[in-house]
Each structure stands twice: as C-alpha cells, then as structure tokens.
Amino acid sequence: MGKKSSLPLIYLIGALLVAIGFCCPMIKGLFGTSANGFDFIRNAKEGGFVAIGSILIFAGAIACIIACFVPQLKGLRLIFAIVALAGAVILVIGFTTNGGIYKAIGKQLLKRAMWGFYMVVVGIVLSIVGAITNK
C-alpha cells in the first residue's frame, strides 16, 4: 500500500494560520494599541489599498479552507493561495504609500509587526507550498 501524502494537510494548516493570524494582533500602533485585519478594513473609510489588501487576505484564506473540503475546488487551491498572497502585497503597498498613520507604521513595518503578521506570512507560504506540491 502506498503512503498517503501529508501535503493537503500542510495546505489546510497554512490556510488556517492565515485566517487565525488575520484575527490576531498584526501591527502595533503608534500609541501602544494593536490592530488586526478587521481593524484595517474598519479604519479605511474610502477603501484604498489597505482595505482591499485586508479583504483579499481574509477572502483568500476562507476560500482555501473551503477548497480543502470541497473536492470540486481542488484545482483552484493555488489560485486561492495566490489571492491571499496578492492581498498581502497590496496591504504592504498600502502601508507604504498611504498617508498619515499608515505611512508612519509602514516605514517601520517589521519593527511594529506582531505575531498575527508572522502567522499570516507563514500561513501564506505553507498554503502555496502545499498547493504547488499537491498536484
């Protein structure tokens, strides 16, 4: 009997890390407060890169989780992981180009990053690796 691959599990763990990390504190604010992904969406009143990137990260993570349990979506797993990655890139661009508090945080992004941020990054990498190697 053949050995069953654990790569679908890696994909699921990566997607769960993204979703959980999105809900956890991601960035330490300028005055000691912390913000999670939903705070980014709530504070971007007129849309912008920060809100769009946050929505794409969370939507990509939820789509990845759903794709793990719906066999018809197996072929779209890589696309869902790339959506989360694109959201992360757009979020970072939003932090570095938007004005005000976002730009001040963006200049020190890695210094102000909290454990939720790192969970999202590791989760995106795991889900992309799991999707690529599980063809």
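[next item in queue]
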Amino acid sequence: MTTLAQRWRTHSSLTPLAGFAIAAILLFAVAPAVLSDFRLNLLAKFLCFAIVAVGIGLAWGRGGMLTLGQGVFFGLGAYIMAMHLQLADAARLGNDVPEFMELAGIRELPSLWQPFASAPVAILGILLLPGLIAAVLGYGVFKRRVKGAYFAILSQALAAAMAILLTGQQAFGGFTGLSDFRAFFGFRLSDPINRRMLFFLAAGTLLLVVALVRQLMHSRYGELLVAVRDQEERVRFLGYDPANVKILAYVVAAFFAGIAGALFTPIVGIISPADIGVVPSIAFLIGVAIGGRTTLLGPVLGAIGVAWAQTAFSEEFPSGWIYLQGVLFIVVVGFIPAGLAGLWPTVKGLLEGRFRRTTADEPSTHPPAPTQPSTEKVESR
C-alpha cells in the first residue's frame, strides 16, 4: 500500500510549482476580492518588507552574514524613487524645484537631484546603485575577513550614519522626509485603480524574487554559499575565495532591498530617515528570524506576520509592541533557532513515522499463497 509520505516524495518535484500557483492565486485573486482598499494597500507595504526579507534570508540564513544594515539599501531605492516623483510633480506644475524646497527657501535644484529627473536614470539608479555600493562595501569587508559580530556592528553603524545624515539635510526633507507624491510614472496615486496596480506590482516582484532565490539556493552557488557559512577555511583550502561568494550574496540582498524601497515610496506615500535607520533594519531581521532564516518562505511569512502584528498590536498597545517584539525575538533565537518554519521538518518526520507504523500494523488483505506440492521424488533405499 502506498503511504501518504511515499506519494509526497513521488510528487515532490511538483511542490514548488504548486506553491507558486497557490501564492499567485492568493495574491492576485483572493486578496483583492476580500480586502478593502486600505487593507490591500497595507498588505502591499508588508510585501515590500517581505522582498527585503528574502534577501536577508539568502545572506544571513544561507551565507551566515548578519546584515543589520539593510535599511541603507532600502533607503537608497526609496529616496531615489521619491526624488524622481517629486521632480516629476514639480515639472507637471511648472516649478523649478519641488514644493518642500520652496518652503525651505531652496530656489535652485541641487546637483545631486538633477540626474533623477529622467525616469530611465532613476530606474537604473534604483537597480544598480544599491548593488554597486554593496559590492564596494563587501569587497572592503570580506576581503579583510571581517565577519561575525564585527560585520553586524559595521553594517548597523552604516544604517545609523545614513539616517543621521539625511536628518540634517534640508535638501532631502530633513527629519520629515519626502512625501505628498501625486503621480507614479504618469499614473495618479489618488486613483484606487492605480493603487491596486501598485499592489499587483509588489506581489509580482515578490514572486519573482522568491523564484530567483530558489534557483540560487538549488544551484552550485547555493551549495557553495552554505559551505562557506559552515566551513569557510575548508572552502578556501579547496581553491575557492569565500569573499567572492559572500560579496555576491550581499549584493543580491542589497539589490532586493533597493527594489523594495522603490516600491515602498509610492505605496506608503512617504519616506523619511525613520524608515531606514537602525530600528527598521533590526525589524527586518526579526521577521526573518521568526519566520525561519534558513528556509525559502520562512523570511517572507515572518516579515509579513511581524509587520501585521506590529500594525495590529500597536493600535491597542502603542508602548508595548516594542517589548513584545523583543520577547518574540528572544524566544525564537533561544528556543526555536530555525524559526517557525523550522518546526515543519519535525512535524513532517512525526507524520511519516506515524504513517509507517500504521502501515506496518495493518493486516494483509490478500490470502496467503497456497503451498505448492513438492515434485521431488524421494528415493527409497
């Protein structure tokens, strides 16, 4: 008798396709049908966090790099998009500078803003700049064999420095940041249909990012990345440079964070230093840890779940959420290191063992085969 576990292993190759199909149905059909426009926009915001989490899962879960500074790359993508949207609104109104600059007394457009008036340049900046900066930082850090807590502290310091720098720059909105965007590449953001378009864009981007990371995890590079995490010196002895392996994962994570930040800006309608500093960077990490950093979908579900919990609980307990978040992180790290997704292999093993025992205890439904008479002749003496 074929057990359920055997059938599951037989059709395991179809599981990823089925998972992507279910996720696509939930995101593109079920969510728009059952959620209000406000809740759908809120889910789109959570999907941006999930995109960042997928990159962290690759760099931290597979590569062992505790990235506490993803807010830097998230902020780069977000601010580049915000700068382009502000310049596009100003051009539509016939102004030389955005409205917030006029209120701040800035009459001439800063030179750093000028290239991003072009939509292609802004898109290229979002796609290339976070990865390029990550490559430079990674080269300087990993080639010097900086790792562990030192790398985590360095990446967190970069996020703090960027937030402080932007807070003191009136040309970037200062502490309040950039907001009041009217259109997104010609589409009015006040139109509910266009808001749904942004949700579909975020959902499609998340599915593509997850598919890309899955291919990386199941490739030779994915195996090499895990080997570097577990036995870096042995990998170096085999002739590979662990620094190059780490740099690629770090760049991919930064690339995802930049795209997520660019989507976050029109979806939420504001970007400020508070969204890219140390606290948001740690929040990204907590979602990945709770969901399961070594799995593919764990970071996604963890990021969405933590963001949803923050929104739900902060409405009831504004001052208590940060403590609850800390308790969740301590519990997961201390008692469930693999995260909530790490519980599935344990449950699966118990189910398979139960099915095997059930099959072994079942009586046979087939009658025993009759004994064939012996055709050998016994010779008498």
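[queue empty]
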